[in-house]
């Protein structure tokens, strides 16, 4: 299916890889071709586009959409080049639920036959020579500086990231994606192509989902390595994460932020924490995840939902605007689509978006490859352990790229 989709200039493939993270609707979605599209622009243009193009819509939100939403600025270049947002109404949608495949297109039989008859010829990728924008010592020193801001009361928690990159690099994004999800299958995985720009995403985190009048977010804060060779030790690590005061502190901060964000767009007193400090197991790590939901106010447009909730608290910190200013001051790379979201609107108007983390970004024209990783910095953080957490979160990517 993906070899066929890659013939198109634009496609979006979303796969939960058999995880049944609730709430759950589709196992797999593939949108190809473009009937209509919208890109920057104002975010209100997204509302107009959705009104004028009912039905399936797919696309992404970039981190720097924050500049319009929160009246901020960014000066860093974005070599991968994804725009701040892009949405498209596809020519065809293939959706899989269980063992059932449904193709929605002008000629579904033709699409199905084209998929069956497409030659699959993936290229083996060579090892990639990765560099990092901040060295280990530079990263640790900046974490220590950020902790001084916390002591002064400028913020309580901040997500701080580093970029790992390579250029010039030639890869086959489809085969890299398959390798990535084989090492790290996660429930919000995506392969997204926008002309010469590719996102290969193995995200475990949901940003925001709407179903009927309920809106839901599942912020993730708290990470610990797994021991897949020792079940008893792995279980101990899982318990250790669940009881960690530092990780609970990070998680409750972002959960409170999400509650506050959702309260701006939800019916009074409807926002609730469905689960606090849930510990979930993924291939490389255990993660602490909370779930927050509320009843959406009638008639709230998508742009207002974004103004209330974007960027997501798990990728910024608290208080949100101040930490975004500190992120701009202390990080050295534009985040671009990283820390943004990829997802879809279905014909009923419901939507589901992930958080773009654990992802490889690639510009085919510039031969520029990048991934970013970070950690949540609090007063209690050990800067060296925060560096180790960055490496842990990029472990599957380094395996795929031949650098472990």
Model description:
The protein is of the alpha+beta class and 404 residues long. It has one domain: Anthranilate synthase, CATH 3.60.120. Helices cover 30% and strands 31% of the residues. The protein is built from 12 helices and 21 strands. The chain has helices spanning 2-5, 44-52, 66-70, 108-116, 136-152, 173-183, 231-243, 245-263, 302-309, 320-330, 383-393, 395-400, and strands at 10-15, 28-32, 36-38, 57-61, 85-89, 92-97, 100-104, 131-132, 157-166, 188-194, 197-203, 206-211, 214-218, 220-225, 272-281, 285-295, 317-318, 341-345, 351-354, 359-363, 368-377. The strands form 2 sheets. Strands 1, 2, 6, 7, 8, 9, 10, 11, 17, 20 and 21 form an 11-stranded antiparallel beta sheet that branches. Strands 3, 4, 5, 12, 13, 14, 15, 16, 18 and 19 form a 10-stranded antiparallel beta sheet that branches. Helix 5 crosses helix 11. The chain is globular and about 60 Å long. The two termini are 30 Å apart. The mean pLDDT is 93.
Number of strands: 21
- Within CATH, the superfamily carries the name Anthranilate synthase
Distance between the termini: 30 Å
Stretches where pLDDT is under 50 for at least 5 consecutive residues are: none
Number of helices: 12
Question: In the CATH classification, which architecture applies?
Answer: 4-Layer Sandwich
As a percent range, the share of helical residues equals: 25-40%
Query: So what's the CATH class?
Result: Alpha Beta
Overall pLDDT score: 93
State which percent range the strand residues make up. Answer: 25-35%
Global outline: globular
């Amino acid at each position: 299916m993906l070899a066929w989709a890659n013939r198109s200039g634009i496609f979006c493939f979303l796969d939960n890889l058999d995880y049944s993270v609730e709430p759950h609707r589709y196992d797999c979605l593939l949108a190809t071709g473009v009937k209509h599209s919208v890109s920057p622009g104002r975010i209100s243009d997204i509302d107009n586009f959705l009104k004028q193009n009912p039905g399936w819509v797919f696309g992404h939100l970039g981190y720097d959409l924050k500049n319009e939403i929160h009246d901020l600025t960014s000066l860093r270049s974005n070599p991968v080049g994804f725009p701040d947002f892009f949405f498209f109404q596809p020519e065809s949608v293939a959706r899989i639920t269980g063992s059932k495949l449904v193709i929605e297109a002008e000629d579904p039989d033709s699409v199905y036959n084209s998929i069956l008859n497409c030659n699959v010829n993936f290229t083996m990728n060579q090892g990639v020579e990765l560099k990092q924008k901040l060295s280990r010592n530079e990263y640790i020193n900046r974490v220590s500086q950020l902790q001084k801001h916390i002591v002064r009361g400028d913020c309580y928690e901040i997500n701080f990231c580093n970029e790992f990159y390579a250029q010039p690099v030639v890869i086959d994004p489809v085969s890299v994606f398959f390798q990535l999800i084989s090492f790290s299958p996660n429930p919000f995985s995506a392969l997204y192509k926008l002309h010469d720009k590719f996102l290969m995403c193995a995200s475990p985190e949901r940003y925001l989902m709407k179903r009927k009048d309920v809106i839901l977010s599942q912020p993730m804060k708290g990470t610990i390595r797994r021991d897949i060779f020792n079940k008893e030790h792995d279980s101990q690590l899982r318990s250790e994460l669940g009881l960690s005061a530092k990780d609970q502190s990070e998680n409750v901060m972002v959960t409170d932020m999400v509650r506050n964000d959702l309260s701006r767009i939800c019916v009074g007193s409807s926002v609730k924490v469905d689960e606090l400090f849930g510990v979930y197991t993924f291939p490389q790590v255990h993660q602490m995840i909370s779930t927050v939901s509320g009843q959406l106010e009638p008639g709230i447009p998508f742009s207002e939902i974004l103004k209330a909730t974007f960027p997501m608290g798990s990728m910024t910190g608290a208080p949100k605007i101040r930490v975004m200013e500190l992120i701009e001051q202390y990080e050295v790379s534009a985040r671009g689509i990283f820390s943004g979201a990829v997802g879809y609107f279905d014909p009923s108007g419901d939507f589901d978006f992930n958080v773009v983390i654990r992802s490889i970004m690639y510009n085919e024209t510039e031969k520029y490859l990048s991934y970013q990783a970070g950690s949540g910095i609090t007063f209690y953080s050990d800067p060296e352990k925060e560096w180790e957490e960055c490496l842990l979160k990029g472990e599957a990517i380094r395996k795929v790229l031949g650098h472990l």
